Model the fold of this input.
Amino acid sequence: MIFCVAFSFRSRKRTFIAAALSSPDLSALSSVLQEEFTRLFVGPLPIPLYESVYRSESGLVNQEETAAVRRQYQEAGLLLHPDSSFPEDHIGAELEFVFFLCQRAAQAEKESDQKSFSRLQQEFLRDHLSLWIAPLCDRLFSAARSSYFQGVAKMTKGFITWDFEEVVSNFGK
Done:
């Protein structure tokens, strides 16, 4: 059995955000969320979005953790686009990689391929995301002024914790 959850909010982004915050004024809401996003994630970052910042002794981007993530991407046959402006250990890239592995496991025709992709997912969650997602989400929850970003923090932390537990319980330790 493959455990995989994919959320695609792109086509309903404004509707989802409005419902999450119970605001009928979408343009005002969009503006408020954009301001908060910028405050949290752009410029002098109160919330760094890179694994290496949380896990390296230096607290800097592009450390050994970034190279380790890159190696796991390569092992799975995946590389970031060469024009990407983000290091491989950006939260968005790491979450997309987990989705990629989950999708590949679900689409695999052979059980051995399913197990291989599930093993890679388990290793990646164990060696990377599960080690730094809680501090990132806790920091986001504390710094966020809106219930939207607080909800994103809670949901992300809870989902990654749950996903790791499910993968371990279904595919061994």
About this structure: Helices lie at 13-21, 26-41, 51-55, 64-75, 91-107, 111-143, 147-171. Residues 54 and 132 are 6 Å apart (CA to CA). The chain has one domain: 50-171.
